[in-house]
């Protein structure tokens, strides 16, 4: 009597593992997305996290990069769990078709995420030159999803795996290089920065003059989107009163000037108030008024 070969443990549980990792990835990138959209800072034991998340590479099509990562993880979770929602006893054909199709989607999705994460790791190491634990965590999740997809089932056609991974990998890499073509352009944005488009009310101007009189400084970089956001909150007239310190070298934008190195500036924008550095990030005018002890009008017209 022949014994029926049992299904390997990894094949029985691969979808649960893939779905679980995808959910963790969605939570991580969702937290980063909310933090960036709300103008807040992320909790991180190393300074590199905010440096990376405030860099010119952290925004794609005007939206924070973690948003796209969150959507990708959600899609992977859906692909992993979709067949499990169909009863195998009553809808065998539907369940089988879902399993076959979603395995191909999982393979394509995990390949794209692996290639994109690999490119981001390259940027961290050779362009931004900063350590971001969230980025490393996401890259680890992407690699785990790819490996689990490969070993999570019995692939009958190995040529199919090779074809899908090569095609998706090449398309992802070419698309990524295209998206970041502007960020990688050797001709950086103008050292004068993006022009301020907002106007200032009397309240913004009075706060700016107060901060200038108290010796308050704002450290930033001309390529930093959050620095421009901070300038927009003040408005053109008021920001002209701010004691602004440019940290980016005009010739090498990613190199920090010595004045900011001595001040121990690790990310932008950073305010120095009463001789102390405030937690980096764009601040509302109400926050700056409170921290600096400003007692004037708080009827500001510009908001973050």
From TrEMBL:
SMART domains: VKc. InterPro entries: Thioredoxin-like_sf, VKOR, VKOR/LTO1, VKOR_sf. Belongs to the VKOR family. Its main location: membrane. Residues 11-153 form the Vitamin K epoxide reductase domain. The chain crosses the membrane at residues 16-34, 65-88, 100-122, 128-149, 161-181. GO terms for cellular component: membrane. This is Vitamin K epoxide reductase domain-containing protein. It is a multi-pass membrane protein. GO terms for molecular function: oxidoreductase activity; quinone binding. It is found in: Membrane. Keywords: Disulfide bond, Membrane, Oxidoreductase, Quinone, Redox-active center, Transmembrane, Transmembrane helix. The keyword Disulfide bond applies. SUPFAM superfamilies: Thioredoxin-like (SSF52833). The keyword Lyase does not apply. It comes from Merismopedia glauca CCAP 1448/3.
């Amino acid at each position: 009597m022949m014994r029926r070969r049992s299904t390997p443990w990894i094949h029985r549980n691969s979808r649960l593992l893939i779905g679980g990792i995808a959910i963790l990835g969605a939570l991580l990138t969702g937290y980063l997305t909310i933090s960036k959209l709300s103008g807040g800072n992320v909790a991180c034991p190393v300074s590199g996290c905010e440096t990376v998340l405030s860099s010119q590479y952290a925004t794609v099509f005007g939206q924070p990069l973690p948003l796209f990562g969150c959507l990708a993880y959600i899609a992977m979770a859906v692909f992993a769990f979709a067949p499990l929602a169909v009863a195998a006893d009553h809808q065998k054909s539907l369940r089988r078709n879902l399993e076959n199709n979603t395995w191909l989607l999982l393979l394509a999705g995990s390949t794209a995420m692996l290639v994109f994460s690999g490119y981001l790791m390259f940027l961290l190491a050779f362009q931004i030159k900063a350590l971001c634990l969230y980025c490393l965590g996401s890259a680890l999740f992407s690699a785990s999803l790819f490996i689990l997809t490969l070993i999570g089932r019995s692939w009958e056609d190995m040529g199919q795996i090779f074809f899908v991974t090569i095609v998706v990998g090449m398309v992802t890499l070419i698309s990524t290089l295209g998206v970041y073509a502007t960020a990688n352009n050797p001709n950086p944005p103008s050292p004068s920065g993006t022009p301020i488009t907002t106007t200032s009310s009397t309240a913004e101007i009075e706060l700016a003059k107060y901060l200038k009189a108290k010796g308050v400084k704002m450290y930033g970089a001309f390529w930093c989107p959050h620095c421009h956001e901070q300038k927009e909150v003040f408005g053109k007239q008021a920001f002209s009163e701010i004691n602004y310190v440019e940290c980016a070298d005009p010739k090498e934008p990613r190199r920090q000037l010595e004045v900011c190195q001595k001040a121990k500036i690790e990310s932008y924008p950073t305010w120095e108030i009463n001789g102390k550095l405030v937690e980096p990030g764009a601040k509302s005018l109400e926050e700056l008024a409170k921290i600096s002890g400003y007692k004037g009008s708080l009827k500001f017209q510009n908001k973050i």
